[in-house]
Design goal:
The complex is a heterodimer of chains A (182) and B (219).
Chain A lengths: L26 H22 L2 H15 L9 H24 L26 H7 L3 H12 L4 H7 L4 H16 L5
Chain B lengths: L3 H13 L14 H15 L6 H12 L9 H6 L3 H7 L11 H4 L7 E2 L5 E7 L9 E5 L2 E8 L2 E6 L10 E3 L4 E3 L6 E2 L17 E2 L1 E3 L4 E6 L2
Parallel strand pairs in B: 1-9
Antiparallel strand pairs in B: 2-11, 3-4, 4-5, 6-7, 7-8, 10-11
Helix pairs in contact in B: 1-2
Classes of the chains: A mainly alpha (182), B alpha+beta (219).
Chain lengths: 182, 219
């Protein structure tokens, strides 16, 4: 009738598979985690677009997740836990910076589960996104993001004004955000 | 400068120059454009690897981490040490404060053994609906009860990842976390097969001959 075992009478569950928490960490597990953190770093960088934020967030993931990893856990389990933590850390990053609740972020920000390992996220994703856009939007993003043009240079190239290019850039980014990236 | 195209262009310029994302609350309206810009900048550069200096700093930080058992924020909540939770975030709680049965063995799916424990009457078994979770509290221990015939099982109502109270999603038949996209079966197992989380702690529960459901909690 009882679903659990009172203290002192319970069966040991310490060998149950699939659970992660056990401390302290052994060096081998640390090595695995460091290797996996390279992939986590790439995953985070791909979403924040700059090194300083990516490093801060990766460190947060490491300090939050690693003390909770179980010694002897397989790399896949360690990766899973690190990525679950990375998603939470990224959610916290965006919600804090933008003043939004995380529930408002799930659909369009960093919390979606990638379908492929982050290390295989391809650099040509830019081309996939641009291909979905109208000619003007594609052109402004190509010049700005791929060729590194300033707004003034983009305006000259497109025979337009800086103000108009700024507006077009914003609209192009909004359109790019709607392109399925993963 | 407050026009959205100006704000977003400033963010784009920063990203293109390798600078941090400097955002403020007013930028929320353009969150989609901002995150698209960040992804475009990152994608242009391809998958990134850690800078060697950063990797070394990270290794040093991890190597210097305490080797003593830690008390996690979640464990603190589960054990009813909510007030101590802030103090132990990312740090080691003094050994003198560790509740022995919890801090020395913190594993997902393990039963919660409150100290001092006390069986607390929480419901009549006839009140429980088969297949539906029922949240109860027994002192500082909160749990979801699940009836199967004449037996009852219980799991902690605290998420195994973030210290948030789960809620019963009746439509999906799952325990859902309000703090991040995570859910658990009535048995406490994570439903995310890609990134499985630790199982929920189980909670001791029994049904008395009189048909009352009791949970091992605290005063």
């Amino acid at each position: 009738m009882s679903a659990g075992h009172p203290p002192g009478e319970q069966e040991s569950t310490s060998d149950e598979p699939g659970d992660l928490l056990q401390l302290p960490m052994a060096p081998r597990a640390t090595d695995i985690a460091l290797h996996e953190l390279e992939i986590v770093y790439a995953f985070i960088y791909a979403r924040v677009g700059n090194r300083a934020d990516a490093e801060d967030l990766t460190q947060q993931v490491a300090l939050k997740a690693i003390p909770r990893l179980r010694e002897g856990a397989p790399a896949s389990a360690i990766r899973g836990y690190l990525f679950a933590t990375a998603r939470s850390v990224l959610g916290g990053f965006w919600s804090t910076r933008l003043g939004l609740s995380e529930s408002e972020l799930h659909e369009d920000l960093a919390l979606a589960v990638p379908q492929t390992p982050p290390s295989e996220e391809r650099a040509d994703i830019v081309q996939r996104i641009l291909a979905e856009l109208s000619d003007n939007y594609r052109r402004v993003l190509e010049l700005r993001f791929l060729h590194g043009y300033s707004l003034k240079e983009v305006a000259a190239e497109m025979h337009s004004t800086v103000g108009a290019v700024k507006v077009m850039q914003l609209r192009a980014l909004r359109a790019a955000a709607k392109v399925k990236m993963e | 400068m407050n026009k959205p195209e100006n704000r977003v262009d400033k963010i784009v310029s920063d990203l293109l120059h390798g600078r941090r994302l400097k955002l403020r609350g007013g930028d929320a309206e353009e969150k989609a454009a901002i995150t698209a810009a960040a992804r475009l900048v990152a994608a242009r550069q391809g998958p990134q690897r850690m800078n060697p200096a950063f990797r070394k700093r990270l290794e040093q930080a991890l190597e210097s981490a305490p080797t003593e058992p830690w008390l996690t924020r979640r464990a603190a909540l589960v054990a009813g040490f909510g007030l101590a939770a802030g103090a132990v975030t990312g740090g080691l709680l003094g050994r003198a404060m560790e509740p022995p049965a919890v801090a020395t063995r913190i594993a997902g799916g393990d039963p919660i053994n409150p100290i001092p424990g006390k069986w607390v009457d929480v419901a009549a078994i006839s009140d429980l609906v088969e297949g539906q979770g029922q949240r109860v509290t027994a002192g500082s221990v909160s749990a979801f009860l699940f009836r199967r015939g004449e037996s009852v099982t219980a799991v902690s109502s605290i998420c195994s990842h973030l210290p948030c109270e789960l809620w019963w999603n009746r439509g999906q038949g799952l325990l859902a976390c309000p703090c991040h996209p995570a859910s658990f079966t009535p048995e406490g197992k994570s439903t995310d097969t890609t990134y499985p989380l630790p199982a929920l702690n189980t909670v001791h529960v029994r049904v008395t001959p009189a048909g009352r459901v009791e949970v091992l909690g605290t005063d």
